Amino acid sequence: MGSVCEEELVVIDPARRGSKEAFESIVKIYMKNAYFIALGLVGNRDDALELSQEAFILAYRNIKRLKPNRKFFPWFYQILRNVCFSHLRKRRHRQTRSLEEIEEQTPIADVDDSFTPDVVAERNETKDMIWKAIGKLDDKHREVIILRHFQNLSYEQIAQNLFCSRGTVMSRLYHARKKLKELLRTKKGGETNGM
Amino acid sequence: MACDEYKDLMMGYLDNELSAEQQQHLKEHLSACRECAGELEEFKKLKQITENVTLVEPEDRLWQQYWDGIYNRVERSIGWIIFSVAAILLTIYGGFKAIEAIITDPTVGLLLKIAMLALLVGLAILFVSVLRERIFFWSKDRYKDVRR
Q: In this structure, are A28 and A68 located in the same domain?
């Protein structure tokens, strides 16, 4: 995301002044990042498309609030994650309610229910298992795994996007990877697939 | 330093994010602690298999239509706002005209006229109350300027 900064500088001020064309250019710079981050956070393609577009709409309406000399993406990322997490909260709430209504003793469905492996390229059993395990992580842990592994962001960039320190990024990554390791172990029934 | 304090450094080592000094510091610990060295090996394997997971790239059509999808939704929402404002204004106007017609109609009984006036006064009080509450809440909202 570092290389697009100069491109962004040219269009960010006109966009802040309300230029639709400038904002369109910003969308075109970041639409793939936004879509894939949303996909990592919510797990399925339709929701990822819908939510990433919704985040851009909110950004378009509020772009005047972006302070001069501040980069677009960390600011936009806050909107995107809020939209995605709010969607996940609503989904969990709906699932809990529908379960209460039918008074069944089934376990509450979680985010991972929508983490279908059909979004994984060149699938195999291990990759499917990892994707499902990522879906079972807490939101904050899944987020840091997505930013590091699927967006290839440096610790500095992750820290900028999450408005936290590098130390927090490292600590969150440690706990996320540890949990991921445990989930994969459980899935394999104690066998660790070389881990 | 206890083992726990090296856990975060392990992540930095794994992702090539440590300074030379930090790397040296961690390596010294790893050479003396088999438990941490073993854990790091497990993390390396996890990282390797996680990095093999890539997500399906959508068709080009999705990217070509991406901005249009956003623009259409913005346009539609503006349309809905204008439509809603107009509908509210027309409803209020129509309501007032209907009430006015009833009140000025000499054939309508006094009780119905009083009821109509009471309805109007009640609505006005409700409106002012809600508006005042909204303004008060907004002015006292500690989070209204929270960075987004």
A: yes
